[in-house]
Amino acid sequence: MLHGHGDDLYRYNNITMNFSSNIYSHADMSKLKQHLCHQLSLIDSYPEPEPLTLAKAIAERRGVSPDCILVTSGATEAIYLIAQALRHSGYTHAHILQPTFNEYADACRMFGLGLTEEDGNGTVTWLCNPNNPTGSLHLEDDSADTVCTASEFSKTLPAIRVVDQSYEDYTLAHLMSPAEAVAKGNIIQLHSLTKTYAVPGLRIGYVVAAPHLINLLRRFVRPWAVNALAIEAGQWLVSNDAKVIADLPAYLAEANRLRTMLNAIPGISVLPTQTNFMLCRIEGHTAAELKDYLASRHGILIRDASNFVGLTPHHFRVAAQSPKENDALTAAIGEYLHPIAHH
């Protein structure tokens, strides 16, 4: 399990600006909270052993059959479930495009999937799209054109591709649709209501795949894995299609402005991004030192990205916030690196 992640507010008591989580932090979820206040009696009884009602609602909205949806307690639970199910089905190796979310590799190691640089039959390829922490996109290649039927899957171990689209609502780029993933037959898509609706504490995610893959995963699902209030929240959010970011193009334009300002600070470099978060590098100091300074002096929290595979102690990640907060972050980093100029 990953130690040292974003949104670690529990370690501090003075944070007023949170850049450490990729989830939009200014979402107004007051209507959902009001709704759940009137649903607290749900905790008096067990929820559905598997949230099939919510799965049906998601299927209707995403344009696929309910037997192509599996609801999980967050996308992270789905990651471990996929690794477990595929290893028990005979898969032995995983190919992970790094740097990316560390839980893919952790889940593979937990269930005995060896990491390899090759992909192909008997291998599970994991990719995040848009990718965390870089904000980059993976373009489809020829291997994604393979269509695997249920009968073919039962006779061989075709290459499986797990595509984590948890940040799909934070980009304007065209991504593979659930219907396209189902049609492929060897694609397992991950989706996150947690991120789409900015409710990370509720833990709600879902898997989209062809029925033969969903049935495979379902063999390893724990009963009552998703709690009653999370199911109720999921149904309310999906049925109301709550809008977390009112103007996504404007928000992403603000993210680009933040990137431009950070890149203008001598000693800071920022990679291009297709979403609201971005990977940065600081020279002459470590990300941990910068994080401690920003938290203690300015009440600003960033993500120390040094524990991503392939990155260095100099890497950190931030997600765009309001223009005022973005200006404050930029000024604070400039003050840290060039105190005389900001005196």
Description:
This protein is an alpha/beta fold and 343 residues long. It contains 12 helices and 13 strands. It has helices at residues 30-37, 52-62, 74-88, 103-110, 150-155, 178-184, 193-196, 211-218, 228-240, 248-263, 287-298, 323-337; strands at 17-18, 69-72, 93-96, 114-115, 123-128, 160-164, 187-192, 205-208, 268-270, 277-282, 300-301, 303-304, 315-319. A 7-stranded mixed sheet has the order 2-8-7-6-5-3-4, sandwiched between helices. Strands 9-10-13-12 form a 4-stranded antiparallel sheet. Strand 3, helix 4 and strand 4 form a beta-alpha-beta unit. The longest helix has 16 residues, at 248-263. The chain is globular, with a radius of gyration of 21 Å. The mean pLDDT is 93.
**CA-to-CA gap between the ends?**
42 Å
Radius of gyration: 21 Å
Mean pLDDT: 93
Stretches with pLDDT under 50, minimum 5 residues: none
The biggest sheet, with number of strands, parallel, antiparallel or mixed sense and barrel status, is: 7 strands, mixed
Number of strands: 13
Structural class: alpha/beta
- In sequence order, what are the helices and strands, one letter per element? EHHEHEHEEHEHEHEHHHEEHEEEH
Q: Could you give the order of strands across the largest sheet?
A: 2-8-7-6-5-3-4
Shape: globular
Strand content is: 5-15%
- Relative helix content: 25-40%
Number of helices: 12
